[in-house]
Design goal:
alpha/beta, binds NADPH dihydro-nicotinamide-adenine-dinucleotide phosphate, Quinone oxidoreductase family protein, 330 residues, 16 strands, QOR-like, ADH-like_N
């Protein structure tokens, strides 16, 4: 039986005004697929990259990579979900900005009873990202309790989760953020130190905090504006973990610079490599569910928008006017 759904789509790449609400047909799930009706949808900075065309996708494109809701039907071969289950996901290809959709079941996980839909929609993509960054993206020298790491945009969606999780792991997270209020938020969520990188030189502050030694890892999702300074914050053999481009993509660089700055390592990670199998997705999600249900990591939803106000939601995110997580409500 076919039904229809509202869907936020772009027909060409560009600004927030390119997002329109279309009506699309939604059919039955095929083999390995699930049909899910959203109760809440997560907003992520990656949605901006998809909208502007930084990441190539065929058009028209239904945006959104995170959501939570109720499973309506499952296709052949899907054994970990059934109709009526509460579920949440982070998934590629995009398509979560809608009422109901058919999608691969691989990345869709049953939501524990203790986690509500809004929290589920807000935390999957950002929380699984914090998980792989802190648990799997390790310097060759290892990461021990007490070690310093630098995390940019620490008061954002991924950032506030990382502050709390890093503290639970015993790490001393130095967070950067774009205002004093955002710095206060990062500190209140477990950052050991916070730097307003709009008013302070973050390299000098990191050197002062670490007694000139530098940090073992920099987690950098800001990209163009912080790249150079981030390398200067690392101690010898340190790891530059680049995972985003909120200020624009990093310019090409000569590898020799890594030698000159102390035999550094660089990696560019993406969540979707980490969740490319059902087993890996579930293992990471279980880890995330455990820290959230234990209260070690609280998912802070600071902005809620109606799905129909998606343009305002994107404008707010791009203007650096948000903190924590943002959700869209269908
Ligand atoms: P955030 O809520 O963190 O929003 C982005 C933040 O980046 C802003 O709030 C702002 O914080 C900071 N920022 C710095 N410079 C700029 C700029 N020029 N324009 C806009 N923002 C800027 O977003 P998310 O939590 O959704 O994602 C955080 C980052 O992590 C993004 O870059 C995203 O692409 C990346 N990401 C990467 C993943 C991966 O696997 N590779 C997966 C998930 C997210 P402030 O004002 O404090 O500087």
């Amino acid at each position: 039986m076919s039904q229809s759904s509202r869907a936020v789509r772009i027909h060409r790449t560009g600004g927030p005004e390119e997002m329109v609400i279309d009506t699309v047909a939604v059919g039955e799930p095929g083999p390995g697929q699930v049909r899910i009706r959203h109760h809440a949808i997560g907003l992520n900075f990656i949605d901006v990259y998809q909208r502007t065309g930084l990441y190539n996708n065929p058009l028209p494109l239904q945006l959104g990579m995170e959501g939570a809701g109720v499973v309506e039907a499952v296709g052949e071969g899907v054994t970990h979900l059934k109709a009526g289950d509460r579920a949440a996901y982070a998934a590629n290809p995009p398509g979560s900005y809608c009422d109901v959709r058919v999608m691969p079941a691989m990345n869709v996980c049953k939501l524990p009873d203790a986690i509500d839909f809004e929290t589920g929609a807000a935390m999957m993509l950002k929380g699984l990202t914090a998980q792989y960054l802190l648990k799997k993206t390790r310097p060759v020298e290892g990461l021990e309790p007490g070690d310093f790491v630098l995390f940019h945009a620490a008061a954002g969606g991924v950032g506030l989760i990382a502050c709390q999780w890093a503290k639970a792991l015993g790490l001393q997270l130095i967070g950067t953020a774009g205002s004093d209020d955002k710095c206060a938020l990062a500190l209140a969520h477990g950052a050991a130190h916070a730097i307003n990188y709009r008013t302070e030189n973050f390299v000098e502050r990191v050197k002062a905090i670490t007694a000139g030694k530098g940090v073992k890892v920099v987690y950098d999702s800001v990209g163009k504006d912080t790249w150079e300074g981030s390398l200067d914050c690392l101690r010898p053999f340190g790891l530059m973990a680049s995972f985003g481009n909120a200020s624009g993509p990093v310019a090409p660089f000569a590898p020799g610079i890594l030698g000159a700055k102390g035999s550094l390592y660089v990696t560019r990670q993406t969540l979707f490599t980490h969740i490319s199998s059902r087993a890996a997705t579930q293992a990471m999600a279980d880890d995330l569910f455990a820290v959230v249900t234990s209260g070690q990591v609280k998912i802070r939803i600071d902005q809620r928008f109606a799905l129909t106000d998606v343009q305002a939601a994107h404008r707010s995110l791009e203007a650096r006017a948000t903190t924590g997580c943002t959700i869209l409500l269908p």
